[in-house]
Amino acid sequence: MEHQVLQRGSDWLDGAGLRPTRQRLTLAALLVGDGKNRHVTAESLFAKVKEQGESVSLATVYNTLRAFCDVGLLQEVTVDGTRSYFDTNTHDHPHFYWENDGTLTDAPANELQIVQLPEAPEGTEIASVEVVIRLRPKA
């Protein structure tokens, strides 16, 4: 990997106070090294690691993605309760889920209007609202 890509990954980890282990740095560089936001699954990131010729187990990828979420570097988006995507854009925003190929992309936040939410049950508060808009080709 080129120096600038690794440096972006290292800076990203440093900003969250995470020690840059070899595995974390490899994954961070793949996630943010080009400066673009992305949505990945653990499996797709694992495949990319293998493609780069790196040696990281799938369990390490899962654990590292969870650690990145825990410190606020990633946002986890669950689709159908069966598949988790990890988003490098941690600001509140809606998503499109493309059923035909199983990908997740950002949807335009400025076009979404949530007029009213139900009141939270007594003793609770709303922590967040996730909007996933499922898309498929017209029949």
UniProtKB/TrEMBL annotation:
One of its GO terms (biological process) is regulation of secondary metabolite biosynthetic process. Signal peptide: none annotated. Its main location: cytoplasm. Keywords: Cytoplasm, DNA-binding, Iron, Metal-binding, Repressor, Transcription, Transcription regulation, Zinc. GO terms for molecular function: DNA-binding transcription factor activity; transcription cis-regulatory region binding; zinc ion binding. GO terms for cellular component: cytoplasm. The keyword Cell inner membrane does not apply. It is found in: Cytoplasm. The keyword Flavoprotein does not apply. InterPro entries: FUR, WH-like_DNA-bd_sf, WH_DNA-bd_sf. Homodimer. Belongs to the Fur family. NCBIfam families: FeRespRegIrr (NF045677), TransRegIrrA (NF045678). This is Ferric uptake regulation protein. The gene is fur.
